[in-house]
Fold this sequence. Notes:
The complex is a heterodimer of chains A (112) and B (115).
Chain A: E1 4-7, E2 10-13, E3 19-25, E4 31-38, E5 42-51, E6 54-57, E7 64-66, E8 76-78, E9 87-94, E10 102-103, E11 107-111
Chain B: E1 4-7, E2 10-14, E3 20-25, E4 33-38, E5 45-50, E6 56-59, E7 62-67, E8 72-77, E9 86-95, E10 101-105, E11 109-114
Parallel strand pairs in B: 2-11
Antiparallel strand pairs in B: 1-3, 3-8, 4-5, 4-9, 6-7, 7-8, 9-10, 9-11
Amino acid sequence: NAGVTQTPKFQVLKTGQSMTLQCAQDMNHEYMSWYRQDPGMGLRLIHYSVGAGITDQGEVPNGYNVSRSTTEDFPLRLLSAAPSQTSVYFCASSADSAYEQYFGPGTRLTVT
Amino acid sequence: QQQVKQSPQSLIVQKGGIPIINCAYENTAFDYFPWYQQFPGKGPALLIAIRPDVSEKKEGRFTISFNKSAKQFSLHIMDSQPGDSATYFCAASMRSGGSNYKLTFGKGTLLTVNP
């Protein structure tokens, strides 16, 4: 099993550009989530999904969109990138709850 | 409002020492308390977790102590090794409508174990 995979590993965007961060898992997990990690801020929940077709907002959802059309994939879309969205983004999945989450390797995003 | 407060921000110990990382929470609806370990350039990984009806849990050299009345829990690393150098996050989880759960993380502790 590959576990949770994320692409790309690194990305540089200009302010106002849009892009999609990809996340996929091959463990048949129902629960998937996106976090951002900033120095001294820990991990903050952006959006999460408890199954295909069901998504909800986390702590810091503004500026991000998600959809969940399949169990395996949970892409995160940045609508109009801003420097404040410079961060490391982690996707995670778990079997049935938020308890034991498996994290991907992360995407380091820089917005100039 | 920070729901899970973690301290210290950073910690340096010598090999063989016992680093202790503390976390406190306010919301009594939290019902599961995991700790995650993160090495540089990697995603966090679940290390150990505890439920509030248990006062202590050990897994190898890692121990969680839980004080429900004080709403505090801590991670102890026995006989620490340089390979334990990482960032450690405490977290708390609670039901958020129906069967949904949300995980809230502390801000992390950067542990350095010197040889």
